[in-house]
Every structure is written in structure tokens, then in C-alpha cells.
Design a protein that fits this description.
Blueprint lengths: L2 E4 L13 E3 L16 H13 L2 H6 L7 E4 L7 H25 L3
Parallel strand pairs: 1-3, 2-3
Length: about 100
Amino acid sequence: MTTVIHIRDTPPGYKDNPDYVYIGRPSKWGNPYPVSMGRTACIDLFREHVTSDPRLLEALSELRGKTLVCYCKPQACHGDVLAELADAKQKEDEDEAEESESEGV
């Protein structure tokens, strides 16, 4: 399960730990929409941004099962969207693999 935590809750040396992924700006996972437009609108636009970009959708597998690190938590965060999408992508990939196995492909 992919989780999201505030950067202050990271252990020392988290940047060297592959189980932690920084998702703030300027990373590719950073939300390009400012929270000043309203947290809900900002997160909704981020969801559209990710789901309309095939490269980001494909890269979601990088986040599966990781701890995503941002400055927003415990408030609603674009990381929640990334965690949800990464976990859904994992489920989708597992279902496809099962289907292929049952078809003998």
C-alpha cells in the first residue's frame, strides 16, 4: 500500500532510501497548481494533469508500495491522488496478469 507522509516525519537519510519518494516541487511528481487557488481545486486539477499524461500514468509503477514525501500532510494532498492511482494501477496490472495466465498467454 502506498502512503503519504509529511517531510518532517521522515527518518534520517530518507533520501538515500528507495522506499521513500519525494513528490514535491521540483520533482516530476510535484503539483504544478498552487494551493492558493484552493486545496480541493488544486488537487482536482492535479488528478486531471496526471491522468491525461501517458508518461506519468506509466511511471506510477515507480510509486507502488512506497512512502511518498510531501509538505502537505496531514492535510489533503496531491500525494493522496498519486497513492490512489499507483495502488489502482498495481491492481489493474495484477488483474491483467491473472487474465493472461488464465488464457494461457
